[in-house]
Amino acid sequence: MNARPQLKHVGLYVHDMARMEAFYADVFDLMVTDRGQVPRLGNRHIVFMSAAADAHHQMVLIDGKDPASGPSVVFQLSFYVQTLGDLRRIDAKMRAQGVTDITPITHGNAWSIYASDPEGNGLEAYLDTPWHVAQPHGRPFDLSLPDADIEAFTLALIQDQQTYASREAWMRTQEAALHASARP
Asked: What is the rounded distance in angstroms from the CA atom of residue 90 to the CA atom of residue 36?
């Protein structure tokens, strides 16, 4: 069976390299793993960033974007976190960086916060819930509530949905579907 391709990094053209590097280092704890110039792109400066020991880069920033061009065409960059506490920490760091468009949404199968980086690129920080429900599904929630209250709020929103299942049951169904559709 062939392995399916997995998204491993994102590259963004930026117009303020220092600001974007500082933002992603501070808010998402990415570290610079390399930097240099790219001859095939007219010697544009490039910065490689990662938060994983086994990934040289998960994000690439390349200078040369016209500031008048507006945000990039990237819909969003999504960063997975482990806990609601991690989500709150990122929310606080974004606010400290001057981000004002932060929107917490429960999707039933994930808790997310959405915002924009300093150059207008869409961001999502998220973690999985213990449940599954068909998407799209979204409702604002209060990230300042205790974890148990957020969990109860989310469960109450989805437990009567026809597609409601435990995350484990949904994953077993997905694994079977992936296996059935695998190319030899």
From this structure: 28
User: Is 94:115 a contact under the CB 8 Å cutoff?
Assistant: yes
Q: What mean pLDDT do residues 83-106 have?
A: 96
Residue ranges with strand state E in 16-172 = 31-38, 44-50, 59-63, 77-80, 103-106, 110-116, 122-128, 131-132, 139-140, 165-166
Which pLDDT belongs to residue 91? Answer: 97
What pairs with residue 50 in β-bridges? 31
pLDDT tens by residue, 110-121: 999 999 999 989
| pLDDT computed for residue 2 by the predictor | 57
Give the chain's mean pLDDT. Answer: 91
Domains delineated in the chain: 10-70 (3.10.180.10), 72-184 (3.30.720.110)
The tokens for 6 are 């997995």
